[in-house]
Design goal:
There is one protein chain. The protein is α+β, with helices and mostly antiparallel strands and about 280 residues long. It contains 8 helices and 10 strands. The strands form 3 sheets. Strands 1-6-7-5 form a 4-stranded antiparallel beta sheet, covered by helices on one side. A hairpin with a 2-residue loop joins strand 2 and strand 3. The two termini are about 35 Å apart. The structure holds a DNA duplex (16 and 16 nucleotides).
Length: about 280
DNA sequence: CCGACGTCCTGCTAGC
DNA sequence: TGCTAGCAGGACGTCG
C-alpha cells in the first residue's frame, strides 16, 4: 500500500515526535503477525532512546542509541502513528512502544502484510534490505538503468514494480509516472530507447516529488505519522480513473490487469510504439 | 536464469 | 435492500 511518498511522509511526521524519546514499554498483541514480534526483543529496546528515523525504498529504519534498529514495512495497510496513551486503540493495533511521557508509537495493520522487527547491532542491516533494493529514484543513473531495462523482456509496468530495479515505486506511482513519460505500460524493457528511459526517470522523480509535497495518496487506509491523510489522489491523472477522460487529450482512460496489478493508462497519450520507432 | 502467477490477510464495494 | 464474489497501494515463494 504505502509507496515511497507515503512512507516518506510517515518518516517526516514521526521524526520530531519520536527522536530523542526513551522507549519505556512495549506491548505486543497476541494475534500472530506474519513476522511475529519476539518477546526477547522487548528487553533489548526498553530503556533505549530513539536516535534517528529514516527511509530506504518502502522500508522504515528506526536507529536506537544501542546501535540496534527497528525495521518496519507497512505492507498494504500498515500504519505507524504517534498517539496519546489515553486515546482509544483502534482495532488491529499490533504493537505499541510507550515513551512514558504522554505519547506512544503504534503499529497498526489490518491485513497484516506489514512487519516490524528488531535488527541487532551485530547484524548487517544491508544484507536484509539493500540486496533487495535498487537505487532511490533520485539516484538513478540513466545509462546504467537503461542497460538494466534493456536486458529485461518484461513490461515497463513490471519493471517499475520490481524493487531491485528502482526502490519505492508501487502500483499508483508506476501508472502515474508512465503516463507523464507518455510510455505504454506494456512496452517491453528491451524495446526501450535511451531517450525513453531518460523521460521515464524524469517523470518518476517529478511525480514522486509532487506526491511527497501533497503528503502522498490516501485511497483507503493510508494516513501519515500524525494521522493526517494525503491529498495527492486529487492530482492522479490515470490511477483509478478508468472510463474517465484523459486530462490531456480527452480519450477514455483504460484499465487492464498487468503484472498482476490493475494498470491504468491513456491509449492516446501512451501509444504502443510503431515497429519503426521501436528499433 | 527469467518471468508469470499464487499466496498471505481483512474489509469494502460493485454488481446482482 | 441484502448478499457475495472479487478486488485492494506489497513482497515473496514456487512453478514452468
Amino acid at each position: 500500500m504505502p509507496e515511497l511518498p507515503e512512507v516518506e511522509t510517515v518518516v517526516r511526521d514521526l521524526r520530531p515526535m519520536i527522536c530523542g524519546r526513551r522507549i519505556t514499554s512495549v506491548t505486543s498483541s497476541r494475534k500472530r503477525l506474519r513476522l511475529p514480534w519476539r518477546d526477547a526483543w522487548n528487553e533489548a529496546i526498553i530503556g533505549q532512546r530513539v536516535k534517528a528515523i529514516r527511509r530506504r525504498g518502502k522500508w522504515i529504519i528506526v536507529d536506537l542509541n544501542s546501535g540496534d534498529r527497528l525495521l518496519a514495512h507497512l505492507g498494504m495497510t500498515g500504519q505507524l502513528i504517534v498517539a496519546a496513551p489515553m486515546a482509544p486503540r483502534q482495532a488491529h493495533t499490533h504493537l505499541v512502544f510507550g515513551f512514558g511521557s504522554g505519547s506512544e508509537l503504534r503499529f497498526r495493520d489490518v491485513r497484516r502484510f506489514g512487519s516490524v522487527r528488531l535488527v541487532p547491532r551485530t547484524q548487517d542491516i544491508d544484507a536484509l534490505i539493500e540486496e533487495k533494493l535498487g537505487p532511490e529514484p533520485w539516484d538513478v543513473a540513466t545509462e546504467q538503468w537503461h542497460h538494466d531495462i534493456r536486458r529485461s523482456r518484461r513490461s515497463l509496468k513490471a519493471i517499475l514494480l520490481d524493487q531491485r530495479m528502482i526502490a519505492g515505486v508501487g502500483n499508483i506511482y508506476a501508472d502515474e509516472s508512465l503516463f507523464v513519460a507518455q510510455l505504454p505500460p506494456n512496452q517491453r524493457g528491451e524495446k526501450t530507447t535511451l531517450e525513453q528511459t531518460e523521460r521515464l526517470r524524469i517523470a518518476i522523480v517529478r511525480v514522486l516529488d509532487q506526491a511527497i509535497a501533497a503528503r502522498g495518496s490516501t485511497i483507503r487506509d493510508y494516513i501519515g505519522g500524525s494521522g493526517l491523510r494525503g491529498r495527492f489522489q486529487m492530482q492522479h491523472q490515470v490511477y483509478r480513473r478508468a472510463g474517465k477522460p484523459c486530462v490531456v487529450c480527452g480519450a477514455l482512460i483504460q484499465c487492464t490487469r498487468m503484472a498482476g496489478r490493475s494498470t491504468h493508462w491513456c491509449p492516446n497519450c501512451q501509444p504502443i510504439a510503431s515497429r519503426r520507432t521501436n528499433k
